[in-house]
Amino acid sequence: MTTQTIETVEPTNVVRLNDRRPAMPADTSVGTIRLPDAPPVEQAPDADGRPSGWARTLEVGGRAWGHTTSAARLTALGVGTTVSRVWEYETAGEVTDQIRSLRAERRTADPERRRELDEEIVKLRERRHQVAYARHREHATLAGAGLGGAAVLALIVATVMVGLVVPAVSAGITGGAAYLAGRREQKRRDSTVQLGGAAGGDGSGGGPRRPQLPTGGDGGDGSDDERPASVDGVYTPAALGEGAPFPIARATTVDQAAECILRALLKESIPVGDVSEVERKPWGWQCIVRVTEGTPAAIIKATDNLETLFDTSHGSVRPQPMIKRRACAKLRIIESDPFASAPAPEYLAPKSISIRDRRRIGSSIDGEELLATLAGVMAEVIAASGGGKTGILQALAEITTACRDAITIDLDPAGDGLEDLGPAARLQGRTHEQIEHVLLWLLMLSKARARLRKTLGMGRKWLASPEHPSIVVFIDEYPKLSKLGKKLAWDLLLVGRKEAVPVVFASQGGTSVYLGENIAQMLAMKVVGPCKRVDTDAVFGTGAAAEGWLPHRLSPATDTDPRDAGHVYAQGVPGTADAPVEYKIHEHPRGQLARLAEERRDAGLLDPDADSLRAMAGVDLPDYVLPEYDAEGNEKKAAPVELLTWERLLRLCEADPPAAEVTPDTPPRAAVRDAIAAMEEQGVDRMRTERLVEVLAARAPEVYQGLTVEILRDLLKEGGGGVPVTLGPLDGLANPRGYKLAALRGAL
């Protein structure tokens, strides 16, 4: 601007600078100088009033050079920014920033904190590799590489066929796009400097803001992305600009993740009030979402659509309603295995714990321990095929087999039960015959203990100890029990808890179609892995999914992919809040359970206490296991199952015999023993029932005075000797009935 005169205007202390442009109204804020009560001043004009020719040429040339260098600089900035953004995105640059931040913190940290930081850095390096690998395989990356290659090939072909016109036009278009991108980046940088953001960074707490790939935050008009402003870490929809949802993988800062989540929730018409406590986890993102009306069930209902908006895998969006904040839910977006850093199972030495002790069987998605005990607990495990059902049972049995005051029994009518851990169980049943006899024996023992505990001074429930151990029963594939087996198991579920005979049964489904009885909601402790929606409702109650119980969203394993096998939702675990939290049951390394089973078996397995066994003699059998007789007293239908002694039960199930005699002597057992002695004294291997009555009465008249065939038959049957059988030609008779020595010996 060339100044000619300075003339005084009203008021007298304001001076206006005049140039060659048309006169403008007086402005006291722009283009004027206020002087403190100064007199008018007059300035002589320049000699010519315009610059010389060489000066004007230099001025025009300088301006042209400035424009040229500015355009080149902005074009280079646009190319560099685009390449940098793509490179940072494809190589997981945001994770690299986290690693650098932890390294900086490590320099001034104490030794213990350094060890923690080293572990976090190792996890982040692994995550960086996973994220980069996943992004290399994204559809957008593959499509971009394919289109780029096709464009280069097309350009080469066009150059050969048409000439240099095509590459020149392409270069112009590419340069123009780079120039516009550079202008936009420069504008963003200038805006950041003006707002003081050059030192503050991206709003996430440190360092200059990393260039990002375009996201849904762009309104499409070339303006900068609008990130939601937070107040104390709380993000509200009101702070959002125009835009559409975008994949969560593009979010590299807390602000961007909050924007991504807010846009997706609003897209699904969820009445979101705010998003807070947004955190970057090694496995993905976590935040708290507050709704302004209704409940967080709206989030749960929209999980499938949210996964589409976030562009994540099935089951990756996992909302968890909060118990203490009814309007809030903890929202997790899973990008990798959240249990990758879960601790290994703890080692339990043989007979090192009590059945009442709580021990870790798994970890929650937040890293909290899942502690369990089966003292006084009836439990169920529900999981589809491939859901990790056997692993859950093994985790529970790994505790009971290490107890000094518990006996473990393993029943499975369709499989191998506890598998590698099976040898640590005192008894295993695999056939219907074995299982029915075991369940009847357990039912009679429970009823006997109900009458006995008052005599032993135990009070209202049986107190487990090494002398009076608890007996924990695991029943895998419960639906495949026989009809009689289910009836006996049902009765045992009703009476076993207070008598220290807890039952844990497992099934692939929780509905009455599987269980035959509506017992899924009756049991106190429920552990549910991958299953169907109807199973969730059957176990946790109708409407449980709206409260966050989502095992049906877990995926069972396949032959090549473990997926969510062993992931569970648990309710009724003693000492643990009934919250819809996802847990993972600890998986034992290959071969470890077999070594533990051998170690515990070698340490010695417990047998039932003599007090309980003695009391069983005074308990009546259920009507449905008794034989049926006609009007004349003849047996019309044999008993479907008989009550065996503990020794006979072990022999039936092919288990190791007890180290010493366990079953106390009773009149029926004494009768069997005396019948064996009578046959051995007579030197025969069989004897008619009538003849046996005569011999016993002669051997011990003080004991068998008044003995009849009917009484002897009942005594021998109750003692395990069975019923009379045909003996072949004997005592001048063609085929009389009686007892064989081998059968009586087997009873003992």
Describe what you observe in this structure.
- The chain has 748 residues and is an alpha+beta fold.
- It is 39% helix and 14% strand.
- The protein is built from 22 helices and 24 strands.
- Strands 11-10-19-18-17-12-16-15-13-14 form a ten-stranded mixed β-sheet.
- Strand 6 (272-281) and strand 7 form a beta hairpin.
- The longest helix is centred in the first third of the chain and has 38 residues, at 53-90.
- The termini are far apart.
- Residues 1-38, 41-49 and 192-225 have low confidence and may be disordered.
Fold topology:
Layout (H helix, E strand, L loop, with lengths): L5 E4 L4 E4 L14 E3 L18 H38 L2 H15 L3 H26 L2 H24 L2 H30 L2 H4 L29 E2 L2 E2 L18 H14 L4 E10 L2 E8 L5 H5 L1 H8 L6 E5 L6 E7 L24 E6 L4 E4 L6 E4 L6 H12 L5 E6 L15 E3 L2 H21 L17 E6 L7 H13 L7 E5 L4 H4 L9 E4 L4 H8 L26 E5 L10 E4 L6 H11 L7 H6 L12 E2 L5 E3 L8 H7 L14 H16 L3 E3 H11 L1 H4 L4 H10 L6 E2 L10 E4 H7 L1
Parallel strand pairs: 12-16, 12-17, 13-14, 13-15, 15-16
Antiparallel strand pairs: 1-2, 2-3, 4-5, 5-6, 6-7, 7-9, 8-9, 10-11, 10-19, 17-18, 18-19, 20-21, 22-24, 23-24
Helix pairs in contact: 1-5, 2-3, 4-5, 11-12, 18-19, 18-21, 18-22
